[in-house]
Specification:
Blueprint lengths: L1 E5 L5 H4 E5 L10 E9 L2 H8 L15 E9 L11 E5 L7
Antiparallel strand pairs: 1-2, 3-4, 4-5
Length: 96
Amino acid sequence: MRCWQVHELGDPIDRLVLDEVEVPEAGTGRVVLDVEAVGLAFPNVLQCRGEYQVKPPLPFSPAAEVVGRVAAVGDGVGGLEVGQRVVSLGGALADQ
């Protein structure tokens, strides 16, 4: 699947790279989404520059929030079903 990632800190325009990565699996307690829309905010720019208080390990996929539909539900997840529209937070500049 396609995923925008930062491999080196700096200006997001220069540092965001469109990578092909493995499709995630819905492990225990996890859900996989088909991403429909993402939100980016200034803290995401600061993360790309290494200037935000939260510093994820490289490479990372910056994004503030995501809207999509549940594609798969892992064991131990309740209240969600495949096809349901949901919103989530973080790391969502990807197809799933």
